[in-house]
Amino acid sequence: LTDTGLEVEKVFEFESIPGGLKGVVVGEVLGLEKHPDADRLRVAKVNIGASEPLIIVCGAANIALGQKVVVATVDAVLLPESEKPLKIQRSKIRGVESAGMICAEDELGIGTSHDGIMVLPSATKVGTPAADYFHLESDWVYEIGLTPNRTDAFGHFGVARDLAARLNLERDVKASMPALAALPAADCAVKVVVEDEAGCGRYAGIVIKNLKIEESPAWLRNRLKAIGISPINNVVDITNYVQHELGQPLHAFDFDKIGGKKIVVRTAPQNSAFVGLDGVSRKLQSEDLMICDAEKPMCIAGVFGGFDSGVSAATTAIFLESAWFNASRVRKTAKHHDLHTDAAFRFERGVDPNGTLNGLARAVELLVEIAQGCVEGGVCDIQSELPKPVEVEVALSKLNAFLGSNIESNELIRIFGSLDMEVISAKAEVYKLRLPTYRVDVTRDTDVYEEVLRIYGYNRVAEPERMLLSVNIPAKPEKTNVLNGLSQMLIGRGFMETLSNGLTRSDYIKAIAGGEYAAQLIAMLNPLSMELDVLRPHLFPSLLDTAAYNLNRQADRLQYFEIGSAYRLKNGSHEEDTRLGLVLSGGRFIENWNNPKIAFDSTDMRGHFSAIFDFMGLSVSENVGSSHAYLEQLVVLHTAGVEVGLLGKLSAGAARVYGIKKEVWLGELNLSLLLPQMRHAAINYREVERFPGVRRDLSLLIDKSVSFEAISSLIQSKGGQLVREVSLFDVYEGKNLPEGKKSYAVGIALQDPKQTLNDKRIDHTMNQVITALQESFGATLR
Q1: Is the dihedral of CA 447, 450, 454, 456 positive or negative?
Q2: In whole angstroms, how far apart are CA 339 and each of 24, 265, 334, 342?
Q3: DSSP 587
Q4: Given this model, what pLDDT does residue 456 score?
């Protein structure tokens, strides 16, 4: 089964009574005495066919001498439905040793009565195992994990058909159902009208009367219980049985409850009420396909039955429905109402339009046999435009080349036959096939190749003697490798990674940004909730959801990142790009007695982004931004003249919307703009410096509008090759400084890789730097 694509996930034993009543036998009461220390207990001597009779203490009022009873011996395990496993042990009851238990129905799990012990007919043979006496069944169940395309295997017959096809390669094996009697062709006792032909391509039904609603026979109950279905009554059980046997869902309506003895397949008005089998009232959509009588809706087609039209203990006649509904319509209705029934599961994936009457005929056969019903009138079978069988051409040479196999023509034809693929014509080993309608997923020649290989056997395809591989080195690094590398680098810098839903709430975005993003938002047609109604236009909504959740739960330090997609509507088309977002909040260091309490600030965020650009081998420039709905102290990042990201402190307005009361720093990069600029990293080697370096510090008084980046760039350009590094180690603004000024303390590291620096060269370089700072920025030395 697994080799043919029907993966067996579990194999387990089913027992009609859990535990199989192992260690439980038929016994005979040979002696009976009053318990010496308990008025309500008696001591029984019981023969179970062993060498010595058992002494058992029993409290049942109906125990009597000479009875044939059911005895659970020592170490037997009983599994009554309402209790935990009960292991029988040798014990003393009020001073008398008891070596077993005489059982009631509920203790055995075969009934619910606890009025007294179970008394068997006098002719019952002593020592007979209880499992044999009660004709208990056990079976092995194969649980198959089906892929959604294999709708043909949603019934047991479909699985048997696949298994037979595989076995047919070794010996003549075929899967076939017993012949079903033809349904009568007379007029149906219920008039059927299909108004919505697009939603219902085929609708068949028949009336069955004189039914006796009762418990199903044991074999039917056990078959259903083995696959996890609780038996209800013989009519409902038969519809469930046929559904799982043939894969065709059925529904039974109480004939006497059908108003006007008329069935109408139509839609219902928007928001009209419908009460289902579970007693819950639901508001219908105008697209929901309904099965109605002349007065009211009775069933959501292919999904769920109605409360007032189902089979009950008082039912004597039914209208049995077998139909083929539009898969898309059923799927949307089931999802909207959150009704995931076995019938909807099959209809929404596609059932066989030509299996409708087979399912109906099989159910009628069982209803006549088991429920003593009789057919009233004939079958109705209303069809509109059904899917036609697909025809494809398959060339043996192309098939073998595609599969790497060496299948011969006679074996291929045998596989076609076992898969119900009709060979219409064959010429020069090119076969024209008509495919079965129950295989809704097989529509092309490549699908046929896959089917052939499933049955032929993957393991029979020979491995080639050699494998030829072409090594293709792309001009740019692979996106996945870059993203994984960024994740690892940021984790190494103390970040944690978060994964968020790509959906967010539009009211927050509009409250923060007003109309800035309104025209770009992509709304969901069928949102799961009001909180998840649009796709996020950037990562900030997801990052802030996470920040608010953690900060509201006393998390005092946040340092996390997310790599994900953002979506926008632009010029009538949808755009998606990959972005990286960072969040910092709280202390720069984890709280410790030896760590200073310093809060994250802009320099931390800029430093992390600088490391990201270094990792990607790209240069970045920073500009002070004007304004942003989400950010204050805005810094805009550019590379190659293109804006690729921004960072800043969470704005007061955005913090208010998310209920955040602590300082939060945010940053975002558009990786979709950065990745095309990357190249494979070149390995550069530089020998260890042999000559010492020196450092000179400058305290500069400059205008507030001048950035450190501009100062650093000027120093490196004027200092030439001697300037190895420029650092900013102090910034001061405020008291004792002129209006509009700030103080920068800048460190300049100088080094010559070829010789030791002397004072003359150092002074000359520093004079050039100072002159340039004075002329370009009006800087003065403090």
Answers
A1: positive
A2: 43, 20, 5, 10
A3: B
A4: 93
Residue 300 neighbours by CB distance under 10 Å: 26
Alpha-carbon gap, residue 117 to 27, rounded angstroms: 12
Residues 6+ apart with CB under 8 A from 155: 243, 244, 245, 246, 247, 248
- pLDDT for position 83: 60
**Integer Cα distance of 50 and 53 in angstroms:** 7
**Contact partners, residue 728, CB within 8 Å, separation at least 6:** 708, 712, 744, 745, 746, 747
Which pLDDT belongs to residue 81?
63
Tell me the CA distances in angstroms from 489 to 56, 57, 426, 560, 561, one per residue in order.
74, 74, 62, 12, 11
* 162 three-state secondary structure: helix
Segment holding 763, helix H or strand E: helix 759-777
DSSP H/E element including 226: helix 218-226
* Residue 574 bridge partners (DSSP): 569
Chunked mean pLDDT (size 10), the chain, 782 residues = 92 86 93 89 93 91 92 89 78 90 87 85 92 88 90 93 90 84 90 94 95 93 91 95 95 94 94 92 94 93 92 94 95 92 93 93 95 94 90 94 91 93 93 94 94 92 84 84 94 95 90 80 85 92 95 92 94 92 91 82 91 90 85 91 92 93 95 89 76 91 87 88 88 85 91 89 91 90 86
| Residue 704 zone, left/alpha/beta (φ > 0; ψ -120 to 50; rest) | alpha
What's this model's pTM, rounded to 2 decimal places? 0.63
Collapsed DSSP state (helix, strand, coil) of residue 244: helix
For every residue of 355-371, DSSP letters joined together read: SHHHHHHHHHHHHHHHS
| Tokens at 641, concatenated | 């003249």
- Separation in Å, CA 497 to CA 258, 319, 486, 490, 582: 59, 58, 11, 9, 9
Q: Are 69 and 29 in contact (CB under 8 A)?
A: yes
Residue 638's DSSP bridge partners are 621, 643
DSSP sequence for 384-404: -SPPPPPEEEEEHHHHHHHHT
The DSSP letter of residue 607 is: H
Q: For residue 210, is it left (φ>0), alpha (ψ between -120 and 50) or beta?
A: left
Please give the full DSSP string across 426-487, using - where no structure is assigned: EETTEEEEE--TT-TT--SHHHHHHHHHHHH-GGGSPPPS---------SS--HHHHHHHHH
Phi, psi of 346 (to 5 degrees): -80, -45
Long-range contacts of 484-490 (CB under 8 A, 24+ apart): 485/615, 486/563, 486/580, 486/612, 486/615, 486/616, 487/561, 487/563, 489/611, 489/612, 489/615, 490/561, 490/582, 490/608, 490/612
The sign one gets for the Cα dihedral 469, 472, 477, 478 is negative
DSSP state of 641: T
Within 247-303, residue ranges assigned H as helices are none
- What are the φ/ψ torsions at residue 2 (nearest 5 degrees)? -65, -40
Bridge partners of residue 575, in order along the sequence: 568
Tell me if residue 130 falls in helix, strand or coil: helix
CB atoms within 10 A of CB 46: 26
Query: How far apart are the C-alpha atoms of 283 and 286, rounded to whole Å?
Result: 10
Structure tokens belonging to residue 102 = 């005489």
pLDDT of residue 272: 92
221's tokens: 């109950």
Cα-Cα-Cα-Cα dihedral sign, residues 646, 652, 655, 656? negative
Specify the residue for token string 């010492």.
692
| Rounded alpha-carbon distances, angstroms, from residue 729 to 614, 698, 745 | 21, 10, 6
Asked if 680 and 694 count as a contact pair (C-beta separation under 8 A), the reply is no
> How do strand 191-194 and strand 262-267 relate by DSSP bridges?
parallel
381: which 2 tokens? 């079978």
